[in-house]
Design goal:
alpha/beta, five-stranded parallel β-sheet, binds cytidine-5'-triphosphate, 24% strand, eight-stranded mixed β-sheet, Rossmann fold
């Protein structure tokens, strides 16, 4: 997949810079032409010569050094690249990319490129969790950059936490996906629902659940990366709208979600229902704020429509994917849902397991197929899981 591809690897001043050496070796092994660009501080950690020997290309460290051939170097790099990888990426380079600063060869080339850019952050846990860094990362994602999640563990600074450079093998998987597979959903129309629904009680109160929307948004981002035409129908979340969508539709209640999903159902080839739809809503909505009384209060609830079940009844060409959050008899309950709702596959998580389910960035799931077979997946980020789910969908579409 990487044979003959031109990959620009930007190395910045993190202690993990030495791990990028292994990344160059793996990229070369797969046949990529690798051009390393180092920031000045990166050269304090590893010598350019190391990267030069392994990549077989002179390393660029200075925007104004005499070029080997006469061309505007940052523009030529930007144009030639099939992919930019910034690994490791410091908080500093992330902030510069987010601000559009172009004061060295790496930042100037990134600003000038139309190729995909993969950012692999590695830094101290507090720098990573700092709201400024987090906002910069969200902003980059919003603008279409791919950003990998750092790993948790012991960091070079002595702290324990999030910020470790991922294993080069894992980075390679993402690179291959971005360069190689990126079109396996081309011409496919994918409808994804995400987040919770809100069922109003009165003008200031509502019933909802703990869904953050992260899984559905990760699926939407991943499907766009693979060339799909994606509509994301989302309940209220705090997440930035993914870049490159065909349509983004914000909804509030299960009823709103149902109307939008049914409207676009005939358009879609694949429907992935990652939303946590409230099963019940208040029977009566009070136009006025309900005042407290001394007595107990009883709130009567009525059932919401089961959107996925209705889709299962209407389905013709569409491939239907459901999610299930279970706490016990996981396989039996999920298989029952798959059959009742006429699904092609169902992704089920045990929400009681640590690192699975609501609000976290990782998930531990099992995928259950129509024939009753079950695949158990290890703990992984929601973005990685999104790609595994899409891999399975592509397999079914091709079979
Ligand atoms: N779903 C839906 N409409 C609903 C409830 C659920 O479309 N009113 C979808 C969800 O988006 C999910 C799947 O159905 O893909 C399973 O949701 P879940 O809440 O786990 O299952 P339920 O069928 O609601 O059953 P229970 O709450 O009893 O586990």
């Amino acid at each position: 997949m990487l044979q003959g591809k031109f990959v620009v690897l930007g190395v910045t001043g993190s202690i993990a810079a030495y791990k990028a050496v292994e990344l160059v070796r793996l990229l070369k092994k797969k046949g990529a032409n690798v051009q390393v660009v180092m920031t000045r501080s990166a050269t304090e950690f590893v010598t350019p010569l190391t990267f030069q020997v392994l990549s077989g290309n002179p390393v660029i460290t200075d925007m104004f050094e005499k070029p080997v051939r006469w061309e505007v170097e940052h523009v030529s790099l930007a144009d030639k690249a099939d992919l930019f990888v910034v690994a490791p990426a410091t908080a500093n380079i992330i902030a510069k990319m987010a601000a559009g600063i172009a004061d060295d060869m790496l930042t100037a080339s990134i600003l000038a490129t139309r190729a995909k850019v993969l950012v692999v952050p590695a830094m101290n846990v507090h720098m990573y969790c700092n709201p400024i860094t987090q906002e910069n990362i969200s902003y980059l994602k919003e603008k279409g950059f791919s950003v990998m999640e750092p790993e948790e563990g012991f960091l070079a600074c002595g702290y324990l936490g999030k910020g470790r450079f991922p294993e080069p093998d894992k980075i390679m998987e993402v690179i291959e996906r971005l360069v190689g597979n990126s079109n396996d959903l081309k011409n496919k129309r994918i409808l994804i629902t995400a987040g919770p629904t809100r069922e109003p009680i009165d003008p200031v109160r509502f019933i909802s659940n703990r869904s953050s929307g992260k899984m559905g948004y990760a699926l939407a981002e991943a499907a766009v990366e693979r060339g799909g035409e994606v509509i994301l129908i989302s309940g209220p979340t705090c997440l930035p709208q993914p870049a490159g969508l065909f349509k983004y539709i914000a909804v509030e209640t299960a009823q709103d979600m149902k109307e939008q999903v049914l409207k676009f159902f005939p358009w879609s080839d694949v429907v992935i229902k990652a939303a946590a739809v409230a099963d019940y809503k208040p029977k009566c909505y009070s136009e006025r704020k309900i005042k407290k009384k001394d007595s107990e209060m009883v709130l009567e609830l009525t059932k919401n429509p089961d959107i996925l079940k209705e889709l299962g009844e209407k389905k013709d060409k569409q491939l239907l994917v459901g999610f299930a959050a279970e706490t016990d008899e996981i396989k039996e309950n999920a298989l029952e849902k798959l059959r009742q709702k006429n699904l092609d596959l169902i992704v089920v998580n045990d929400v009681t397991a640590e690192g699975a389910g609501f609000e976290v960035d990782t998930n531990i799931v099992k995928i259950i197929y129509k024939d009753g077979s079950m695949e158990e997946l290890p703990k992984m980020t929601k973005k990685d899981l999104a790609h595994v789910i899409l891999d399975r969908i592509v397999q079914i579409l091709r079979s």
